[in-house]
Structures are given as structure tokens and as C-alpha cells.
Amino acid sequence: DAGVIQSPRHEVTEMGQEVTLRCKPISGHNSLFWYRQTMMRGLELLIYFNNNVPIDDSGMPEDRFSAKMPNASFSTLKIQPSEPRDSAVYFCASSRRESGANVLTFGAGSRLTVL
Amino acid sequence: LAKTTQPISMDSYEGQEVNITCSHNNIATNDYITWYQQFPSQGPRFIIQGYKTKVTNEVASLFIPADRKSSTLSLPRVSLSDTAVYYCLLRYSGAGSYQLTFGKGTKLSVIP
Predict the structure, then answer these.
(1) What is the pLDDT of residues B48-92, one digit of tens each?
(2) A102 in contact with chain B, both atoms CB, cutoff 8 A
(3) What is the DSSP string of B49-112?
């Protein structure tokens, strides 16, 4: 199993540009999570999906952020327009949702720098 | 949300046993306690999970008292490669959805 695959690993862009981060979850996992990590705020849950349906997006910071999961094997997190304060490492994680327990498998992350 | 509290940092010498305690006073009945390890420039990695009493695997042990208001991750005979941030995680359940919220974590530094 290749694990959770994220792309790009690194992205440097200028303020105002659109950024799209991609994630391929582990086959058979039915939950997908997007997290953001910064030194100041730690790991923050942005949004998660169950069976491709967004369940809770209360962690999405602003309308500039949007996430989609068109099928079980692909998800995107889009920032438009991007701002310097969006600079962070964005992690995607997937799991098989079971009652009472969740073991997340994380991808390697996408490091975003907005100049 | 069920909130977790951990020490910000810990230091240990190689070969010693390390115990990291996480407080979760508001844990829900059906919450499992899960611990993750994160190395620099990598995503968190699952270490161990438990519901009550004691769980042991090849990496660590997890001790959970009867009231489940805290849990202790035990790493036997740590090595330099165990230097990482360790997070305890709960699942908050409510209204058909749940949150998997990480706390600040404990930065463990293993000293030669």
C-alpha cells in the first residue's frame, strides 16, 4: 500500500494566487481529513469527509478555503486567493471509520509558502 | 469538545523509560484514547490506542485508569530516534459527527 499520497510536497506562490493541494487516500478508507500545521497554532482540523460527503467544515478559516472530494480516491483543498498567513504545512489523513475509534494515516504533507 | 492537556516538553537520557501523561477530564463514554508520534517534516504516525486498563504493542504501552480521565504513554528504553512530538487524541462525538482534535503535544528530547 502506497499510503496517503499528497501533492505537491512543496509550493511557493505569491499572494493572490490560487493554490490547489491534492490528496489520494488509502484504498478502502472511507473518511478523509485535512489538517493544517503551524508553529503558532499546532495541528488544526480544517474539514473532514465521510464517504465523500463533507461532514464538518467548521475548521475552514475563511471562504477563501474550499475542499472537495469528487470520489473515494481523490480530494482537493483550494485556497483562492492565497495570503501570506496561509503559509503552513497541510496534511491529509484517511481512516476507516469505526464506532468509537479512529486510526488516522497521514500523508507526508504539502508545505505551502505564500510570499 | 473533549480537551486534552499534556506537558509541553520532556527530556530523557537514552535507555530510560519515558512516561507521558495526558489529561482528558471530559472524555466521553465511547471515546478511545489514541497516541501519535510526529517527527520533523513528517505527518503524525499512529502509535497505540486503548479504551481502558492497559494496552501494549511492540512500540509502547498505554495505561488508562478506571475513571479514564487521564492516560499515560510509556516508552521503554528510549533511543535518540524517539525524539519527536507525541500527541494524545480523543474523538468527540455529537449530533452524528465527530471531531478529531490534536492538542499541543509533548516534545520529547532524548539525550545521549
Answers:
(1) 999 888 999 999 999 999 999 999 999 999 999 999 999 998 865
(2) yes
(3) EESSEEEE-SS-EEEE-TT-SEEEEEESS--GGG-EEEEEEEEEEETTEEEEEE---EEEEEE-
